[in-house]
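ok new one. same drill as before - structure tokens go in, u give me an amino acid for every spot. 714 of them this time. try not to just spam alanines like last time pls lmao
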């Protein structure tokens, strides 16, 4: 990338000292300039204005940091960064204000149905549809641009109030009535058409502010002065704040992600989030992600250093998904100085391997579909259970099986279908007519489909479809009846509703290949919910359902109905090519919640059967997250060793090395290849046979990056 390239294409390592109100008294310019160099930082995010101003603003009601005095700390840091050749983004946090601001303009702030404001830690939350966002924030942007000419802006709280409450300020009431033609709903009620319309309208309101702020910054700061907000790559968290990742991605040249550390889902989800975000913004765009150096987890400690392997593993996982690093410290002075030693060695490696971490495209034959519409209108108030657990089940199973996949937005099936052999629908109940048509075309052209639950059975509002959705394509007819666990799961042994099983074909010699590796059992634990369906004659029923029976006392634990004709898994080979597989049993949801290995094996087997080619084989021990990419003339494989690293709640204290590993990639680069090891160093002996390039790795500690190239290439 040349110096003439726009900053958002050029900067590949970001840093942020998130200033506190005390920092004007203790900011050490020389120390931080040295740290920027130590971390190879090319761009910094510096606190400017919003809820706290770090410069002497002339605007009414913009609260200055308590210890700022007459100092211009934002200006000082910006000038120092520019002197070091760094890009500068002005950080905002826009959604709260002091009481004097509220008293002057009470209608600019969130109101409940009784006209009472929303107050958090003594500050009043502003409404996204009020002049606070339409006039006050743009005025701050103009003032900062005129004085400091930053490259752009980030905003930590641009989405305003989340979906937990409905604002009844006069601006929301008038705007909703005018634009939607309904009265603003009084309370959340998914059966109320006005409430469902309010959900969609709320996304639109945020996008309007996104566009407004970008018009202001580009008009006053030039075409490359971008307002970037801040987003979260987890679809559930973005949905809770009315941030439509697809719409934001369509408007972005760079996406700033605030997803600082793992949760109970594990480190692998940073790579998955990176690929999901690239799926909406494009693989040519940069996605910097704020990465915490302070303690995260069930209880965060803002001033204590995160265990170094915890931060390091999160950062490396991000690299594997195309994430750009962005170190993040809270406060300009730290008594726990250990946090400053974590990032530099990771970014040393990033600099050395930058050529292999950008300008690449994923290599995968499997796409896992997602959409905000499904989270909103199928998930409703139970999105974690209905939507996210099936998603986590599939993505974990594929990761565990080392099957490369890419997240695909349901609107992008036609665009992203090239190279994909199989689409996976994790109980993707809500699909628009256009999305359904794209999936059908994919299958008509020979693609395979793996779907679970109610996939395709609801329209864009979450209402049951009049036509069959995807049922006919999958070779089933839904009855509308559900059996199995119909309420919340309980571990109480006196309750038997979750004590259900799947029955496998007893003829192990004639079993379907989906059941590979399960030859020594005729049953599998289930414990979930099953959609009652009728399977069409051309299909094969791979497993059936065994109803619940007593679990306690043990004398009563025998199957009352050991054999039924209730299909749990239905498979079909289509005459036009391609295969379909339907999971009536929500094995994906159960695996996402409980991670029973049998369920993960079954999900992976479903995809392997449906997909006639997987471009990667990794043989050997360990929980490995594997990501394969193509650059011109080479293949790049990033292997993350997450063995023992995903205990929750806990922290990574040591890496458990794995090996030996035998690694093969589908190779089209000729009869020979070489393989450079960018972590261990040197090259691995590479053998090419039958269209595959094979190497052996003796040991992988935390990760390895393997670059496959044709012999003779430099």
């Amino acid at each position: 990338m040349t110096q003439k390239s726009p900053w958002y294409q050029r900067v590949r390592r970001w840093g942020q000292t998130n200033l506190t109100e005390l920092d004007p008294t203790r900011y050490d310019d020389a120390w931080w300039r040295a740290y920027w160099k130590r971390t190879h930082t090319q761009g910094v995010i510096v606190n400017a204005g919003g809820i706290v101003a770090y410069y002497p603003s002339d605007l009414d009601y913009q609260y200055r940091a308590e210890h700022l005095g007459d100092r211009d700390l934002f200006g000082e840091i910006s000038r120092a960064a520019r002197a070091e050749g760094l890009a500068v983004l002005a950080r905002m946090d826009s959604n709260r204000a002091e009481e004097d601001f509220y008293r002057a303009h009470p209608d600019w702030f969130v109101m409940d149905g009784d006209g009472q404001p929303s107050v958090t830690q003594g500050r009043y939350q502003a409404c996204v549809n009020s002049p606070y966002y339409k006039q006050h924030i743009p005025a701050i942007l103009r003032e900062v641009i005129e004085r400091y000419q930053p490259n752009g802006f980030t905003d930590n709280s641009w989405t305003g109030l989340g979906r937990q409450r409905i604002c009844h300020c006069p601006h929301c009431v008038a705007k909703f009535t005018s634009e939607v033609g309904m009265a603003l709903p009084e309370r959340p009620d998914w059966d109320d058409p006005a409430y469902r319309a309010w959900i969609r309208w709320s996304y639109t309101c945020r996008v309007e502010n996104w566009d407004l702020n970008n018009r202001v910054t580009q008009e006053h700061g030039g075409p490359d002065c971008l307002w970037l907000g801040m987003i979260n790559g987890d679809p559930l968290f973005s949905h809770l704040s009315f941030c439509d990742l697809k719409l934001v991605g369509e408007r972005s040249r760079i996406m700033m992600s605030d997803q600082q550390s793992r949760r109970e889902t594990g480190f692998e989800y940073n790579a998955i989030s990176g690929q999901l975000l690239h799926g909406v913004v494009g693989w040519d765009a940069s996605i910097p992600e704020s990465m915490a150096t302070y303690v995260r987890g069930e209880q965060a400690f803002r001033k204590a250093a995160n265990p170094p392997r915890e931060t390091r593993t999160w950062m490396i996982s991000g690299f594997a998904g195309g994430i750009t690093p962005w170190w993040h410290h809270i406060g300009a002075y730290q008594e726990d100085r250990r946090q400053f030693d974590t990032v530099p060695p990771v970014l040393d490696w990033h600099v050395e391997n930058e050529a292999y971490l950008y300008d690449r495209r994923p290599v995968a034959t499997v796409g896992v579909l997602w959409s905000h519409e499904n989270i909103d209108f199928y998930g409703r108030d139970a999105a974690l259970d209905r939507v996210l657990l099936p998603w986590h089940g599939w993505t974990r199973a594929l990761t565990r099986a080392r099957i490369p996949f890419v997240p695909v937005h349901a609107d992008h099936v036609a665009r992203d279908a090239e190279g994909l052999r199989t689409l996976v629908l994790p109980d993707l109940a809500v699909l628009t007519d256009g999305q359904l048509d794209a999936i059908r075309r994919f299958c008509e052209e020979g693609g395979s489909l793996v779907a679970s639950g109610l996939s395709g059975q609801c329209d864009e509002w979450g209402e049951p479809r009049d036509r069959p959705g995807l049922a006919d394509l999958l070779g089933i007819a839904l009855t509308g009846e559900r059996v199995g666990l119909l309420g919340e799961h309980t571990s109480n042994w006196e309750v038997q509703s979750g004590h259900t099983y799947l029955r496998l074909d007893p003829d192990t010699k004639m079993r379907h290949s989906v059941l590979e590796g399960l030859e020594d059992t005729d049953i599998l634990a289930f414990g979930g919910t099953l959609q009652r369906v009728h399977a069409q004659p051309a299909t094969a029923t791979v497993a059936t359902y065994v109803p619940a029976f007593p679990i306690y006392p043990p004398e009563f634990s025998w199957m009352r109905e050991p054999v039924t004709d209730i299909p749990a898994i239905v498979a079909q080979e289509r005459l036009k090519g391609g295969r379909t597989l339907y999971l009536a049993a929500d094995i994906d949801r159960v695996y996402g919640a409980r991670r029973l290995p049998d369920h993960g094996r079954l999900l992976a087997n479903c995809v392997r059967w449906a997909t006639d080619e997987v471009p990667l084989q990794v043989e050997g021990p360990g929980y490995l997250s594997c990501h394969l990419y193509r650059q011109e003339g080479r293949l790049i494989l990033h292997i993350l060793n997450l063995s023992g690293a995903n205990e929750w709640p806990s922290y990574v204290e040591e890496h458990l090395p794995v090996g030996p590993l035998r690694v093969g990639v589908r190779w089209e680069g000729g009869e020979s290849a070489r393989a450079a090891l960018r972590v261990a160093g040197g090259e691995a002996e590479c053998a090419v046979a039958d269209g595959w390039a094979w190497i052996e790795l003796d040991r992988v500690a935390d990760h390895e990056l393997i670059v496959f190239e044709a012999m003779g290439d430099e």
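Residues 193-221 form the longest helix (29 residues). and btw The first strand starts at residue 14 and ends at 18.
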